[in-house]
Amino acid sequence: MKKHAYLIMAHHQFEILMIFLRLMDHERNDFYIHIDIKTKDIPIEKIRNSVKYSRIEFINRMSVNWGGYSQIECELNLLKQALRGEYDYYHLVSGIDMPIKTKNKILDYFENKENTQYVHFEQKQIQDKYLDRIRYWYPFQEKVKKGYIYYLMGQVLLKIQKLFGVNRIKIENEFQFGANWFSITHEFAQYVVSQEKWIKKRFSMTTCADEIFLQTVLINSPFKNELPREAFEGDYSSCLRHIDWKRGNPYIFRKSDFEELISAKELFARKFDWNIDKEIIYQLKNYLEKEGEYETNEKDSSVDTMLQ
Q1: How many CB atoms lie within 10 A of CB 84?
Q2: Which residue in 70, 46, 302, 44 sits closest to 180, CA to CA?
Q3: Would you say 182 and 119 are in contact if contact means Cβ atoms under 8 Å apart?
Q4: CATH of region 4-127+170-307, choose from 1.20.120, 3.90.550, 2.60.40, 1.10.10
Q5: Do the Cβ atoms of 83 and 190 come closer than 8 Å?
Q6: Sorting pLDDT into bands at 50, 70 and 90, what band is 299?
Q7: Residue 26 to residues 88, 116, 234, 268, Cα–Cα distance (Å)
Q8: Can you tell me where the transmembrane regions are (predicted)?
Q9: Are 51 and 29 within 8 A, CB to CB?
């Protein structure tokens, strides 16, 4: 039976994280958690006590900044730590994601899947506006949230680079763009980590390249034929995540979206906000726990029938 590693990037709203852990608690699921070093008052023991059967491992903390290479570095660190456990699948989620199927259904979904990389691609060919993220140098990207001056300096430098025709990707492989959340096999996870030097050279001092690097590594690798059929249709089901960019950036689910979520074909959903609508989180929690009990009773009942 397949084993799974959940790679979780968290920095706040740990109530959601603890519910996620409780819902996914299973002897075949382990959790590798990164909590941003800028975050204070972390309920470590409460997080650990959220599970009975799974193993939780906190990886070394670092500062992860929006749009910076630190996001890619954190993902690679999570992969490297989890690879030691030799899991069948590695799932990257955020600390404000939720499952929308029971843990047993999620486990069953992957049980018969062989060599499939669940990665999202927006289109068959990357749009030029996304190439701008990696075409120029963005040395202030890690600091843009720390002060407006860094944003202004970055904009000035960008205009100068455009004026002089700077292009970091003149002779390169194919680039691709999509959501940064994924579910990938052990073999591909190993391959990604093996490309760390190339990834750092290509994507350091870029902006928002966490939505480019994995797709690019994959499409230029021997694993490019292991994508689901809908991978290039812009459908988030290709990465098994229910995400809505039409109503928000992305949209934050509310209690009015409950039926939409439980009837969706994907396995996970993002994003949720404890302060905006905690009711939808409780609705999903109660529903999935009830469904899980029903599935367990059904399984026990079928076993009893066979033994009669």
Answers
A1: 10
A2: 70
A3: yes
A4: 3.90.550
A5: yes
A6: low
A7: 15, 22, 32, 16
A8: none
A9: no
- Select from 139, 147, 143, 206 the least CA-distant residue to 177: 206
The contacts of residue 205 (CB under 8 Å, 6+ apart) are 69, 137, 138, 139, 141
Beta strands in 164-225 (DSSP E): 183-185
90-122: pLDDT as tens digits: 999 999 999 999 999 999 999 988 889 999 999
Residue type, 301: S
pLDDT (tens digit, 9 = 90+) per residue, 239-269? Answer: 999 999 999 999 999 999 999 999 999 999 9
* Residue 160 to residue 153: CA distance in whole angstroms: 11
Q: Is 253 left (phi over 0), alpha (psi -120 to 50) or beta?
A: beta
Residue 154, token pair as written in the block: 């970055």
Q: pTM, whole model, 2 decimals?
A: 0.93
